[in-house]
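Risk register update: the risk of archive-format incompatibility is retired. Evidence:
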Amino acid sequence: MAEMENKSICYDILQFQETLRKMRTLDDKIIYTFNTSIPTDSFKGQVNESATCKHLYDELQTNYRSREHSIKQCIDILANEVRSLKQEKDAHPDNFQLLKHLRREQTSLRLLQTELGVEEVIKERTMKVFYEHCRNYYKPPEASP
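Archived output:
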């Protein structure tokens, strides 16, 4: 998360995607997390399922907010860069290097916008698993799956 505060990461799309991948670890391992934290019927008395589900929900929501904020922050940065480059291109239409740079930034911007869609799919999938495992123990504030 701290890495995302560095705005230069927005210009290195591969590094940005790698950082997002690391931030998505909890979502990727959600089934394992449930299997290790919510006990089977024979061990039910040993764990407070409500507290475990609430903690996991809070952790997921924090991760979602952080990733979404990071993606949107980089989208804003690159959108401003693209606007600036378009203005320069309009002033210097024959500058081939400028055109190449503009296209590269436009591609990066589209990739970041795609990451928002990926984020929604990941969130939906993870929350579906969350509700399947925790529906009897914890009802989140916006309890719609």
